[in-house]
Write a structure and sequence with these properties.
Helix content: 25-40%
Oligomer: single chain
Number of strands: 4
Largest sheet: 4 strands, mixed
CATH superfamily: YhbY-like
CATH class: Alpha Beta
CATH topology: Translation Initiation Factor IF3
Number of helices: 3
Shape: globular
CATH architecture: 2-Layer Sandwich
Number of domains: 1
Strand content: 15-25%
Structural class: alpha+beta
Distance between the termini: 15 Å
């Protein structure tokens, strides 16, 4: 997905910054069902906040893990903060 502008990034951070993560990824990792849920929430809200539990990061670093999810869901990675990250997907016109 294309790179986000600075204004769009701040928009997403402002809206999701104080909210809790709506999706938690645990030791089961990222399944097809998890990707469907992320896509469903993105279709509804354009943005989603995801938290990765430490048990899900067996041999991956968080940056690699989040980039893989962003590629699979065709979204833009807005920010990684600790084990929490934000994804944004623009709606089709």
């Amino acid at each position: 997905m294309s790179e986000l502008t600075k204004g769009k990034k701040s928009f997403v951070k402002r809206h999701l910054g104080s909210e809790r993560a709506s999706i938690l990824i645990g030791k089961g990792g990222v399944s097809e069902q998890m990707l469907k849920e992320i896509n469903r929430q993105l279709e509804k809200n354009k943005m989603v906040k995801v938290k990765v539990l430490k048990t899900a990061l067996i041999d991956n670093e968080i940056k690699q893990f989040t980039q893989k999810i962003a590629e699979q869901t065709n979204t833009s990675l807005v920010e990684i903060r600790g084990h929490t990250f934000m994804l944004y997907k623009s709606r089709k016109k």
